[in-house]
Amino acid sequence: MKSIIGGLLAAFGIVGVGVELDHLREGTARSSVTGFLLAALFILGGLALIRSARRAKQPPGLGESARPALSGRDLERMVLTCAQARGGRVTIAEVAASTQLSFTEAKEVLEGLSRAGACTVDVTENGAFIYEFSGLMPREP
């Protein structure tokens, strides 16, 4: 509902700008500055309502500052801790579920660790990628 009202307010403001421009073109403008200011207020108010409605639809924690930026070292440490807790074998989904990383972030960190030679990647019959950290797997006697 907020977005509909916001859209109507913004549209009304745009029409107001058009009317003021028409008055200027015809030379019949008495207080164009006031008209432009009112139109700008309607446009800005409408856009603010639209933005507010979009933010209200987002799940909690998805704001611009949901968490502080982490360094590459911190990201790797989170993934390695997760892998250690799971016996040295993890999937992207497991890392994403047990850390504060998104699925995409977990995938990028795991791929980086694989390129660096820290782990190997196996693909299951279902197509899931399993990252194996041999240094974190339990040692056999």
Concise structural overview:
With 141 residues, the chain is mostly helical. The chain is built from five helices and three strands. It is rod-shaped, with a radius of gyration of 27 Å.
Your description of this structure?
The protein has 141 residues and is mostly helical. The protein is built from 5 helices and 3 strands. It has helices at residues 2-26, 32-57, 72-85, 92-98, 103-115, and strands at residues 89-91, 120-123, 129-132. Strands 1-3-2 form a 3-stranded antiparallel sheet. A hairpin with a 5-residue loop joins strand 2 and strand 3 (129-132). Helix 3 packs across helix 5 (103-115) and helix 4 (92-98) crosses helix 5. The longest helix has 26 residues, at 32-57. The chain is rod-shaped and about 95 Å long. It starts with a helix and ends in a 9-residue tail after the last strand. The model has no long low-confidence stretch (mean pLDDT 84).
